[in-house]
Amino acid sequence: MSKIELVPVASLRPALYNPREADGERLELVRLSLQKLGFLLPLVATVDGEILSGHQRHSEAVRMGATHVPVMLVDVPEAQRRGINILFNRATNDITITATEQDMADALSSAGVRTLAETLPDIPVDSPAFFPCMSAQMAEVAPLARQNVFSFVRHAANVGRMLARLHVQLPIVATPDGTVVNGVGRLEAAARKGRKQIAVVTLAEDKAALARAMLNLLSMDFRFTGENADFLRYGSFRRAWLKRSFLGTAFVLPVFSHKRLADVSLADPHFLAKWKAACGENILDFGSGQGDEARMLREAGIRVTEFEPYPAERNIVSRERGRLFAMQFLAAVRRKEAFSAIFVSSVLNSVPFPEDREHVLRIVAALCSPETVVYAAARGKNGSDWQWLTTGEAMSARASRVCGFKLASEDGIVLGDIAANPKAQKFFGKEEFHALFARHFGEVTVGKADSMVTARCRNPLFMLPQQLAESLRFEFNLPYPGNKRMGLAKLALEAFSVRLGLNLGAI
């Protein structure tokens, strides 16, 4: 078991980047939980005292007059703390992957926690009983797993597996007869890993119902604003494992609406001829990721301009390379490069906020002539990943191992990859995808291809110069790690002004 220590409350500090939004009513419940149950689980903090998990419990304990709190200290590099903080904010809830913030709030309201608490005495602050997690004992995993197997929750196990990878082994909470009150995910992860023992905090039976509600259902809402919003923006980069060896859906769409992507090759002269007839030979890859499709197209003799604000090497975003891509792209804009086709391939699903997607499509539309065709593809609600996230039933082993959760900020938004590089993913319905493009193009055809939604667009609609200027100022001053910015908004305004015969910088 990872060591738990009692430390002075003054030795800890909250993480300023914690995206949880506390409200008065739920803070009262945190206080009630501490009064009646104490610290069943420890706080988690870095070795230098920055809290990763347990901000509200720490603050309420201080208000109650506590001088010490139980803490599990972990050695976490500063660059990874935001992501791990997000993971810990859902790490101790035994909930299904389909549970939303509203579902949890409704279930907590129905649990009658105040009535349950009335039957229990208050625990003296700073007494040994206030810190039950300090008395955790090691127990055999196998019999506990067999006893609780019908309570296992796959999503909770996925989170437990992630915690174990971070060398964080929080105890589970169980009644004297071995019924797990909280931590079935951690127990299942331990059993699947073959661990022999796990730490158990034993809880009296008369406290079990209250503890089950407080530990599994009491949760603050996520709010990604300011620096936390920027964290999701530069976390949108294409992951290293998504290296492409064949064209993605958007690039196959000009020829085939439904075709297994691995069966399509630019080396096939018939496919290439049809592709050139549909797309021309001077295209823009807007959001080119790792540049795999651009490379394949160039090898086939196609002229390709790329724009990728978040290129990454070994999953580390490079501002220098992002600026270089942007400057090369803006040079093409300034010289009035005429694009026969523009591809927006697996881009919009990685853009975390709806207003950001509008900026992208305004810029794309501004680059189109009446003859330009736009081909787009994004993750749809018709795929296995969305089914797992909304029904708890996975159509593939890979989907069932996804560790993420839906955010309340927008329908279809999921936060994933939460232990390493948290990334927001937007899943689109077909009608929603159509409405998004119809705000910018007069001719829009939307379809489905496997787990993706697709769009073919022509005839860009008129937009106010003020709108385009706003979007350019946003897109070419995107954030990067270390509180840095792209810093190319002025150059972008100048390039588009030359191209369009406007004075966007004066707007």
UniProtKB/TrEMBL annotation:
Name listed for the protein in its UniProt record: ParB-like N-terminal domain-containing protein
Source organism, top-level taxon: Bacteria
Record Pfam families: Methyltransf_23 (PF13489)
InterPro entries: ParB/Sulfiredoxin_sf, ParB_N, SAM-dependent_MTases_sf
Domain ParB-like N-terminal: 5-90
Protein's organism: uncultured Desulfovibrio sp
